[in-house]
Design goal:
Layout (H helix, E strand, L loop, with lengths): L1 H18 L1 H13 L32 H14 L3 E5 L7 H9 L2 H10 L6 E8 L4 E8 L3 H18 L6 H14 L2 E2 L1 H5 L3 H6 L5 H7 L1 E2 L1 H14 L4 E6 L2 E8 L2 E5 L24 H7 L16
Parallel strand pairs: 4-5
Antiparallel strand pairs: 1-3, 2-3, 6-7, 7-8
Helix pairs in contact: 7-11, 10-11
């Protein structure tokens, strides 16, 4: 009788193990094998660590909806993590599809990038999703470690040369705005080429191009300005439309637009002009300019409404 009972108990155990093998394996993977990777990693010194209306920092590695996934991506990007690992739970059946969709959506990823620290911005993202729901994201950064160090030193140097503590915040921003524009020309050659290889070899879409080569397109102007805004501890992020990108700045308890690219117009006689048309202006004033390139998603850049 005991032998029969033992056999039945063994069969029941085997049946349960087989039937619930997925959750059991998942539990072992999450709590033992990958336990150390499913946590908030140490962020680097460039992290902003700020929450926004659209996206927030998180320590939830078991997302239950798309917003949770967006928050995880933002947390990893802004913190400068080399990788992000989390699990898609059975309670969120479309999780893996949502992750795949996000990693293939360059527009949404660029929007997330705009809120993260400039020096932690990504260049490429690689994703691996296991059959058990483990998601591993690898980030390739836009700026190399050497470029980061050089940009930090350049920003520190220029800040000491250009800024005095007697200046108010608006004056400090104006001085940096004017310096970048007068020492940078819009790279028309970069803007007019559709050769991705040529573009990848050019620094004009980065702060490195603006501050070290004196040539930039809108991404370079905007990144350069963002580095100084971060240096001054001024809340800011980048706003992008399908064809353009610029800075949004919180000053005097208001959010203002700051577009260095459009304040450095390209003119036919080659003159290096400096304007202040787009210097710390309201959304209402921006829309009155009717440039079309400044039409952005107000459901994402909510502070700029």
């Amino acid at each position: 009788m005991k032998k029969l009972f033992g056999t039945i108990l063994c069969l029941i155990t085997l049946f349960c193990l087989y039937t619930y093998r997925g959750p059991i394996i998942r539990y072992i993977m999450v709590n033992f094998i990958y336990h150390d990777t499913l946590k908030v990693l140490e962020s680097n010194s460039y992290e902003r660590a700020q929450n926004w209306a659209y996206i927030q920092k998180t320590d939830n590695f078991s997302p239950q909806n798309k917003q949770d996934i967006l928050n995880l991506f933002y947390t990893a990007l802004d913190g400068g993590w080399g990788a992000l690992t989390f699990y898609c739970e059975e309670s969120y059946p479309t999780c893996m599809n949502d992750v795949r969709s996000l990693t293939q959506d360059s527009t949404t990823l660029s929007n997330i990038n705009n809120f993260a620290s400039t020096l932690n911005a990504y260049n490429k993202i690689y994703v691996d999703i296991s059959s058990l729901g483990r998601v591993n994201i690898q980030f390739e950064r836009l700026y190399t470690p050497k470029q980061r160090q050089q940009l930090e030193e350049k920003v520190d140097q220029l800040y000491q040369e250009l800024i005095t503590e007697t200046m108010n915040t608006e004056k400090k921003i104006r001085v940096i705005h004017d310096y970048i524009i007068t020492h940078t020309v819009y790279d028309q050659e970069y803007a007019s080429t559709y050769n991705l290889k040529e573009r990848s070899l050019s620094p004009s879409n980065t702060a490195y191009g603006a501050l070290f080569f004196g040539k930039a397109v809108c991404g370079g102007y905007t990144d350069a300005m963002a580095l100084f805004l971060d240096k001054m501890n001024i809340p800011n992020y980048k706003i992008s439309s399908p064809k353009h990108i610029w800075n949004l700045v919180y000053i005097n308890k208001e959010w203002k637009h700051l577009d260095l690219t459009w304040d450095d117009p390209v003119v036919s006689n080659g003159e290096n002009m400096l304007l202040h048309t787009f210097f710390l202006i309201s959304t209402e004033m921006l829309e009155q300019e009717d440039t079309k390139e400044h039409i952005y998603d107000k459901n994402i850049y909510i502070e700029a409404k």
